[in-house]
Amino acid sequence: MTKLAYLDCPTGIAGDMCLGALVSAGVPWEYLVEKLARLGIEQEYHLRLSQVHHNGQLATKVHVDLPDQDHQHHHHQQEHHHEHGDEHYHEHHHEHRSGITEISTPEQNHHHHPTRHLPDIEKLITAAKLPSRVCQWSLAIFRKLAEAEGAVHGISPDKVHFHEVGATDAIIDIVGTCLGLDWLGIDQIYCSPLPTGGGTVWAAHGRLPVPVPAVLKLWESRQVPVYSNGIERELVTPTGAAIAVTLATSFGSPPAMTIQKIGNGAGSRQLPIPNMLRLWIGESSEAVNLGKFKVKPSNLPPQTLHQSSLSANSSSANSSLETISVLETQIDDLNPQAIGYVFQELFNAGAVDVFTQAIGMKKSRPGILLSVICHPQDLDACQAVLFRETTTLGVRRLTQQRAILPREIQQVQTKYGQISVKVAWSDRSPHKTIMNVHPEYQDCAKLAKDNNCSWLEVHHLALSAWYSQYRE
Cys staple from 102: which of 94, 164, 289, 320, with CB 3.0 to 4.6 Å? Predict the structure, then answer.
C-alpha cells in the first residue's frame, strides 16, 4: 500500500502549523531537533513545543524562538520571512502562526541584518547531510518560493534575498516539515482547497491586499482551488503556500484512503473556527488503472518505491519533480579509452546518469560534451572526479528540476526463469494509471543466453507474464 498524507487546511497553512501537525501525528520531537541541528544555525533559533486549545480542541504548537532583540515584542510567534530584490531597506514579514502577516515599513526599521540569497540557503541545506529525500524536497520548496517572489518583483530567483532572521524561521519550517514527512514514510501528499483570507497587510511600499502577491503567484503556478471562509485574515503564508504547492500531488477532496492517524498543528491566533491544520495519515485503498484493465492492490508485491516518489510538483502525468544538479564539460584531448573508466568513477561518486555527445570545438577539433546528472549533495564529489580523471580545466554547474514517474520493481515468472519488470505510473486520485511496463534488460539477456533463445522472445514472454499476473 502507498502511504498517504492529506493536508486539511480549514484555516490555511503555515510552516509551523505543518511542524505541529507532524509532531502530533507521531514524529519524534527529539528527532526533529537533532536533524535540524545539522544545518549549523542552532545559535539563530530555539525550538519549543506546547499543547494548546483552539475552540476546545487540543493541538500541538511549535514555537521557533529567534534571539534577535529587535523582535522580542512579537512574542516569538511570527514566521519572519524575507526581503525582496536588492532594495536598500529591510522588509520584515512577520507571519503570525495563524497566518497574519505584519510587514513593517522602512521608516519603522532602523536596524540592519545580513541577508541570505537562495544559493546561500541551498548550500546550507546540501551541506547538512540530511536524508536524500529531505534535501531534495527542501531545495525544491525554497526554489519554488524564490521563483514566486522573483516573478512578483521582476528579478531572478537567485537574486531574491531572505532577511537572515526570516530565513532562519523559513529554513526551520521547511526543512523540519520535510524531515517529518520523510520520517513518517509518506509516499504522496494531497491538499484541500485553500481559504483566501482577506484584509490587508503592511509591505515596504504600503499596504497589500490578502492574499499577498507571492501566495497568488504560487497558487497560479499550480492552479490551486481556493475559496473564502469569511475570515478576514491572512490565512496562507508564503512558506505554507510553497510547501503545499511544491509537495502536493493534487488539491481537492481527500483521496481514497484508510486513515491511521490524525495530527493537529496549531496556529497562534484564536479564530471563529479552530485554528489548526489537520494532517490525515493513512494508506491508499484504490485500484490501479491499466487502460481497460485494473490491477488489484492486493495483487501487487511490496513496493520498492523510488526515493523521490513523493511529488515535488505535478505535471500533466502527475509526475514527481525533484531538484537535481548537472555538470557539463567539453573535452577534445582525452584518450577515448579513459571515458569508460570516468563513467564508472562518476557512478561510484553518486551520479544518477552520465552521457556524452559528439561536438565540434574550436579549431575544428572533434570533441565530446560530457554531462553528469547527480543529486545536489553529490555535486562536489562528481566534480572532483571530472577534474581528477579527465583533462578538463573547467566544469559548468547547473541546478535544474526533472519530472519523474513513481516506479517499482516487480517479479514475473516465465518458462525460462524469473525476470524483474520496472513499472511506472501516474498518481491520479482516486486511481493510479500505469504509464510504462519494461522488463529489465540484463535479466532478459541472461535468460536468452542461458536458454539459447532470442532476447526478443524473452522480452515478450516477460511482458505477457506481467499482464497475466497483475491484471484483474
Answer: 94
Q: Are 42 and 33 in contact (CB under 8 A)?
A: no
**Spatial separation of the C-alpha atoms in residues 87 and 115, rounded to whole Å:** 12
DSSP string, 369-428: EEEEEE-GGGHHHHHHHHHHHS--S--EEEEEEEEE--EEEEEEEETTEEEEEEEEEEEE
Average pLDDT of the residues of the chain: 81
Q: How far apart are the first and last CA of the chain?
A: 17
Asked if residue 435 lies in contact with residue 405, where contact means CB atoms within 8 angstroms, the answer is yes
Grid coordinates representing 173? Answer: 519550517
Contact (Cβ atoms closer than 8 angstroms) between residue 21 and residue 279: yes
Strand ranges across the sheet with 101-104: 78-80, 92-96, 101-104
Distance between CA atoms of residues 62 and 180, nearest Å: 13
Distance, in Å, from the CA atom of 178 to the CA atom of 311, rounded to the nearest integer, reads: 12
pLDDT band at 427 (very low <50, low <70, confident <90, very high): low
Task: State how far the Cα of 445 lies from the Cα of 8, in Å rounded to an integer.
Answer: 49
User: If pLDDT is split at 50, 70 and 90, which confidence band does 166 have?
Assistant: low
- Note the Cα 364 to chain centre separation in Å: 44
Cell of 412: 514475473
- 3-state class of 291 per DSSP? coil
Q: Say what the pLDDT of residue 343 is.
A: 96
93-135 pLDDT, tens digit per residue, is: 334 333 333 333 333 333 444 578 899 999 999 999 999 999 9
Flag whether pLDDT at 86 surpasses 50. Answer: no
Cα gap 40→393, rounded to integer Å: 33
Residue written as cell 515478450?
460
* Joined grid coordinates for residue 311: 511529488
Count, residues in the chain: 472
* All structural domains of the chain: 3-285 (no CATH), 290-319+405-470 (no CATH), 320-404 (3.30.70.1380)
